[in-house]
Amino acid sequence: MNWLRLENDTFVWVNSRSALLYNPATGQHLLWHIDSPEAESFFRSMADSNNLSCIILDEKPLMINETRKIISKIASLNLGRVVQTNEPPVSYPPVLNLQSDPFRMKNNENVREDLYWNTYLKEVVFYLTGTLSANDIAKQEVYPLNGDTPLPINPVLHFLDECLRIGVDSISICIKPGLHPSESRLLNVLRSIPVKKRLYIKASDMTISDLRRYDFFDEIIVLYYKDYEAETNTFINKNDDLGLSIKKRFLIDNEKDYSFNNEIYQGDETISASPIFTGNNQQFFCDNVFLSHSEILGQKLDKRIIFARQRANLNQFGVLSVLPDGNVYSNMLGRPIGTIKEPIQSIIGAEMKSKKGWLKTRDTKPCHQCLCKWLCPSPTAYEELMKHPACLEGTELTTEE
Question: Which of 168, 235, 262, 382 shows the smallest number of beta carbons within 10 Å?
Answer without folding.
Answer: 262
